[in-house]
Every structure is written in structure tokens, then in C-alpha cells.
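Quick start: load a record and inspect it. Here is Protocatechuate dioxygenase:
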Amino acid sequence: MRHDLDHHEGQRVSRRRLIAGIGSVGLAGLLAACGRDSGGTVTTSTGETVSPQATASTSADLTALFAEAGTCTLTASTTQGPYYFDADKIRSDIREDREGTRLRVAIRVQDSEQCGPLANAVVEIWHCDAEGLYSGAEAQSSGAGGAPGGGTPPSGAPGGTPPSGGPAGGTPPSGAPGGGAAPGGGSEGSAADLTPTDDKRYLRGAQVTNSDGIVEFTTIWPGWYRGRTTHIHAMVHVDNNRVLTTQMMFDEALNTKVYAAAPYSAHTGRDTFNDNDTIYADSMLMKVVADGDGYLGVLNFSVDSDQDGS
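Running the structure step on this input writes:
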């Protein structure tokens, strides 16, 4: 199954440049109603011309789902993993040519102190495809080309043998997110941004929160790789600051259902689930419901926007 992209989306616009332009152009103006393209463009203070992007509205169904998807308790931060970089993709549909079960991801960003919506925050998400590969790092995430941490993957399976425990082989403190194994056997404790080794950018993108603090992405259900449960990475920026780096997880019954169908069913040997993943926390579990031919997953992010520790 191949989904056509909105060709007005996905221009290579630096997320950092857009953050810098928020104060002068009001980036909420870049965002159109969910699923619609106005066809117009906006010029930022840096002189870049970008198309309006999609964002979610606070419809009754989304509002009800968000009420069941977390509170204003500060969202737990965790490792960004070894495969994060600024993909320069401001867009809502991040699928490109990746096949898989359609997944809408709606995220509401709230200020942890005010427990209210946080507008004009930049939200990035990135995750692997149905085979466990990351764009910009296909060689590393397949276990080829000098994967972090080394390790030889089994035939046909992405990723090498993961190290035990947390970053650098350590064991994360009890009850605290951390550790985990990266594709290719690398540690997900790596804090350095990746220098991409290929020009692919699928399953990566950024959006700017609307006045309700909401962004929405269209993607596919993420695949898996050895040493980690199914997850999506997320990062929130306020001004030029990274105020949250976290991950989103899925109910295992749904993972099992999705993975029984193509293209996921061709990738066998899954070894890590929510109950034995070193990063998983209940607060990272998305509220997921059926949505046409796919699913809708929602989660609240409560962030310390002024970074004062509360």
C-alpha cells in the first residue's frame, strides 16, 4: 500500500530557522486546518518561503481522547537515541514511500506549571520503518556500515546484538526510564546528534503547535528492532531550547495485531516487549483507537517550558 504525499508539504526548511522566526511571523500562521492545504505560502523572517501545514483541531473526539491520555504531570524525559538529527522537514505527513498501517499521531503540549496549552512549540517525531530502519541512518540501523556498538545482526534482521542494561552497558536506576539498546547494538544513551549518512528523510518531521497546543502527524505504525519495544521518539522545542525529549509506546495487543499483517509480518524474531524494555513507562503509552483503515494515537506532553525545574 503506497500513500500519495501532499506535494506542498515537506520542503527542506530548517527547524532551527523556523524557531528563530516564530516571534516575528507567528508560525501558527503556517498551519492550516487538519488534512487541508490552503495552497498559500508564508515567508519567514529568514526569507524562506514555506507552505501552510496541517495541525489538529480540538474536535470533541480528540478532546475526549486527550482527557484519557495523560495529565499535566511533568512528562518523563528519556534518551533521544543515536539516530536523531534536525531533518529540516516541516510537515504533517511523514510517510513518503514507507509502507505500513496508517497511524495518525496527535500530541497536545501543555505547560507543566499552568496546565494549559502551549502554542508555537515545535514538536519533532521520528521512528523506524516496518523493517526497523531509520532514515538518514539506514546503514547503521541495519547493522551494516559500522553500526554503533558493533555486533553482527542475524540474517535478515535489522540490528546487532544489543548490549545489556542501559547506556554504556550500565543498568538504569529502578523505575527510571533509560538505557535500552539501539539498532546495530548501539546504546540509546547516546546524546550526540547524528550526522546523517544517507539522504533519506522518511518517518521524520516537525510541526508547530496551534493555539490549543496540538500538532498532528500522519505516519505508519512503527516497526521494531532488537533490544527495544515498539516506540516513536519525540522532542519539543520552545524558542531555541529543547524542553523535552521522550518516547511514545503502544499497547502490546495492538502491536501483535498490526505485526501479523504485511509488511510487518516479514520481519520476525521480535525479542523485546513493553514488559522487558528498559525505557518503557506507563506514562508513555498512547491512547489508541481505530481510525478508518488505520489508527489514531494521542498523548499529552507536559513540559517545563521555562526550564525552572517545575
